[in-house]
Amino acid sequence: MKSSTLRRLCCATFAAALTLGPAFEGCSSPGEKPESAENAENSKKSETSKTAESSPTAAPDKGEQFLAENKTKEGVRTTASGLQYKVLKEGSGKSPAVTDTVVCNYRGTLLNGTEFDSSYKRGEPAVFALNHVIRGWTEGVQLMKEGSKYQFFIPSNLAYGSHGAGDLIGPYETLIFEIELIKVK
After folding, report:
1. Given a cut of 60, is residue 12 above it in pLDDT?
2. Catalytic positions
3. Under DSSP, is residue 163 helix (H, G, I), strand (E, B) or coil?
4. Model confidence, pTM
């Protein structure tokens, strides 16, 4: 198999996983009631203790340590959910609602710098229904306006949690995305 074919296949697999994100970790789909804050907190505590006990390859402490240090850096903002972001370029267009479809360019990396997907490398923007992606994207992209470029630091509980995605994104990975919002449909 040619490397370009393999790269397209890997990117398509990640894009599919990105859009399946809400199926994981108690993400709610349109029409579903979100779980209560108390249940979510108890679930998170339970998940964290299970991780420490049962998954020697998972490193939630590494992600938590990164986020604790990162939030002190200049320009980094943190939302109530723990999503961190930095405005690289502020746009002036329309902001998306959770039910909108967005056209964007993005680059996704792990904490160690490994790039797991890039619409830039594919040479074309991606189109996603905002309510069908991982929670960190859903929350973060709604903060943006068309023409904006943000960097997001997404804790594992707002990404793929204990499931991971594909071969590169392991369980409990904190992810970094650079997202350029081109258009809200």
Report:
1. no
2. 106, 116-117, 134, 160, 177
3. coil
4. 0.72
